[in-house]
Write a structure and sequence with these properties.
This protein has two domains: 1-69, no CATH class; 80-167, no CATH class. The protein is mostly helical. It has a two-stranded antiparallel sheet. Strand 1 and strand 2 (11-14) form a beta hairpin. It is built from seven helices and two strands, in the order E-E-H-H-H-H-H-H-H. This is Tetratricopeptide repeat protein.
Length: 177
């Protein structure tokens, strides 16, 4: 296994690998750091887990969620790209669709909170796109798993609460002389 090296002003450092026996405890810590609103720490822990166990679905999910927690921060485009790559990498259709919905929903929340001109139209588009993913995942959800319904309902309530709607059509036709 190759080590990843990092250059700093003080010299070079390399990451230390986790033990396989420590994966479950590390995953628990990553979940706790997400709950403590420290998504970059959760992200780092999940990257360590996935370095040792690349097929660890739980670590991939926590990593995806930690990335979406960072959507309002600088560098959001890289976090979105990484989250989409993770979602597209899920082997089962339900998780691929459901977590794609999460990504779109979080982008809607980011747009809604940005306060940028026209961002309420962007938020509406992100939320409705998320709802399409949730509907698709609902159709194939595991028995007793209503997560997609809960997320769809949340998007519906946010749209209603903030009176979000589609972007108006631009009917402007320039007069040519």
């Amino acid at each position: 296994m190759s080590m990843q090296h990092f250059e700093t002003q003080e010299g070079e450092f390399q990451l230390k690998p986790l033990s396989r026996e420590g994966i479950q405890a590390a995953l628990s810590k990553a979940e706790k750091y997400r709950l403590l609103n420290d998504p970059s720490m959760a992200e780092s822990i999940c990257l360590d887990i996935l370095k040792i166990d690349p097929d660890n679905k739980d670590a991939a999910i926590v990593l995806l969620l930690a990335l979406t927690d960072q959507f309002g921060n600088p560098g959001v485009h890289q976090a979105v790209k990484q989250a989409k790559e993770l979602a597209n990498g899920f082997k089962d259709d339900y998780n691929r669709l459901y977590y794609s919905g999460i990504i779109h929903e979080r982008q809607g929340t980011n747009a809604l909170n940005s306060g940028n001109p026209g961002s309420h139209f962007d938020a509406y588009e992100w939320y409705t796109e998320a709802m399409k993913y949730y509907e698709k995942s609902e159709a194939i959800q595991p028995q007793g798993n209503d997560d997609a319904i809960l997320r769809w309902n949340t998007c519906t309530r946010i749209i209603a609460k903030h009176k979000l709607g589609p972007r108006p059509k631009d009917d402007f036709i320039p007069i040519l002389e």
